[in-house]
Amino acid sequence: MAVDAHDSALLRQFLDPRTKEAGFTAIVTKYQERLYRHIRRLVITHDDANDVLQNVFIKMWRGLDSFQMQAQLYTWLYRIATNECISFLEKKRRKDTVSLEHEKAVASMRADSYFNPDKLEWKLQMAILQLPEKQRIVFNLRYFDEMPYQEMSRILETSEGALKASYYHAVKKIEEYLLSH
Question: Beta-strand (E) ranges in 6-147?
Fold first, then answer.
């Protein structure tokens, strides 16, 4: 799958030493909101999402010169973002126990001024927090980003069958949570 025409133009701009910074800024502008939403759903807090997003853009800056253009640019960026989220969560888990991490995420959500525990969207977010990390990532990519399994397979470097199973189990756990809360 080749890079689309607009991304191709942005990449050419980035690869030209005279317009490198403008090309980088244009790519960041195009993808930062989508990447932020993806990251935020995985790491939960705004500050953590911003930190991870900055790391994604640093890796993008360093790696874009060698981008092969055999995949879509956003697929490559999502792979970086997902891997950065996984690394961030693993580091965080080493510092905290899993239950303490979960309690912090729930407390963070409840501290949000927009939190209303009676709204279905908040119940859904609480249910998502209950999922194991891999299921949470797969659910977010499929449900919120409406990403096809084939694309997820490239990003997460796993089989479509494994992704379908993870999504199925995630949906079942979310349904159970929603019915019991």
Answer: none
